[in-house]
Design a protein that fits this description.
With 115 residues, the protein is mainly alpha-helical. The chain has helices spanning 3-6, 12-18, 23-50, 53-69, 73-87, 94-114. Helix content is 80%, strand content 0%.
Amino acid sequence: MNLSAQLMTLNKNLALSRVGGDEELFQEIASIYLEEYPALVAEIERAVRSGDASGLTNSAHTLKGSAGAVGGEVAAHYALQLETMGRQSRLDGAAEALEALRQALDSLKAELAAA
């Protein structure tokens, strides 16, 4: 079974547990995430296009943490894949991983809007 199939697009219970069950704080963190993640995706796209392994590592790492903070398990999974590719300077397949990340982020955005 594919690991990403075992993960949740939005694991709100996990995210809430990280903020002591504070729904208001979760909503605030989610709002900040929704404002900031597009810039990180743009940085990842630039790094993939230009073959910048270090830039990919840094941007994907930041996005992984941000997505994880709001309970975005699938998005964090794909961000980790990209971070690992960058860290190993092996960008073969990075465009495909980026597309999977974009889809996961779109799904996460929709679920956060409904949360």
